[in-house]
Amino acid sequence: MISDSDLKKIQPKLLNGESSPLHVQVGVPIPKVIRIRFFSPDEWEEFTEEWASSLKSDYSRVRRFGGSGDLGVDIAGFFSEQGFEGEWDNYQCKRYDHALRPGDVWVEIGKIIYYSYRGEYTAPRKHYFVCSQGIGTSLEKLLNKPAELKAKTIENWDKYCLNGITSTVTISLTGGLKSHLDAFDFSVFTSRSLVEIIEGHSKTVFHAVRFGGGLPARPNPTTPPPIPTENESRYIRQLLDAYGDHLGTRLHDTTALNSHDIIKRDYLRQRERFYHAESLKNFARDTVPEGTFDSLQDEIYHGVIDICENSHPTGFERMKATVAQASAVAGTSNPLVSSIKTQDRQGICHQLANDDRLIWMPKND
Predict the structure, then answer these.
(1) Phi (first) and psi of residue 64, to 5 degrees
(2) What is the number of other CB atoms lying within 10 angstroms of the CB of residue 157?
(3) Which residues form the ABC-three component systems C-terminal domain (predicted)?
(4) What is the pLDDT of residues 114-149, one digit of tens each?
């Protein structure tokens, strides 16, 4: 008989000791390694492409190969412009429903042996196995024992490589190919863990968008230099024309502002705002996918263009009204929203003026 002592109260523990508002909103965070294991084929393909972009700092060139004629090459990192004729690394990225096993790699090893023997490429400096489910213990042990890995490759050649390397010809491990394999340095075969892949991915502009967690802290914007740069010439010319319209005189350069204190202070504020927007542009380049900042500029443009094209007493009033309107554009649909300041929205108006998308002195005024 079951006694009362066998029965325990239902007492769930608090999540990691305590719950938070974030848990209530989105649930328990799923570790990135676990999320990768549930990627669809398309998501895995996209993820590895994104991750491969992090390798560009390690190599002269990084290229992706695929299809039935990949010759055992998936992602190649070249150390020189010699490509496959020089030193290079190979990354073989597999998506399976299980951790990578020895039986999954014999044909891949066979391809590297065979095609390097054929002269399609020199043997890679390193050949890294990567798998969406990680590297299994049995394979990891083999990869750390090159001599045993070579012996097992020979042992499994007929089963996996004889008819598996290419569908057009049977490849027997005899003669020159056997000699090539015997001389081949099997220490080139190794692996990259999912933790290492995620670490590399975290250095790309795709990481925050794919995994969340927010953007890194944004550096302070650069202080505008005393003398404007060439990059500022167009929006500053537009400002001078707008100020001149307000003052009823032609302003040839910024030194003409020295006798107009209020206008000079406004000019200095507009330059600060431009540099805020430029710093956000640079921040976006390093943290979010290409086109994200352009999308923000477009959103600001559409939020202010009607105000800009309204009738205004002077070009100065037009600029002031447009910049004020930019402050009210939320931009909540943009991935940069958590890093945007009011000065950025205002400064984007001057970036748009730099490109003549916003005009303070329309010709029909």
Answers:
(1) -105, 135
(2) 23
(3) 232-360
(4) 999 999 999 999 999 999 999 999 999 999 999 999
Contact 132, 39 (CB under 8 A): yes
Tell me which DSSP letter residue 219 carries.
Answer: P
Q: Residue 270 CB: number of other CB atoms within 10 A?
A: 24
Q: Coil, strand, or helix at residue 11?
A: coil
Residue 162: name the closest of 126, 94, 222, 113 by CA. Answer: 113
What value, to the nearest 5°, has the Cα angle with vertex 175 and ends 174 and 178?
Answer: 60
d(C-alpha 276, C-alpha 279), whole Å: 5
User: For residue 216, which of 127, 157, 269, 283 has the smallest C-alpha distance?
Assistant: 283
Which residues sit opposite 127 in a β-bridge? 90, 189
Neighbour order of strands in the sheet with 88-94: 61-64, 75-78, 88-94, 126-131, 189-191
- Domain boundaries in the chain? 33-211, 230-354
* 242 vs 315: CA distance, rounded Å: 4
As a whole number of Å, the CA-based R_g of the chain is 30
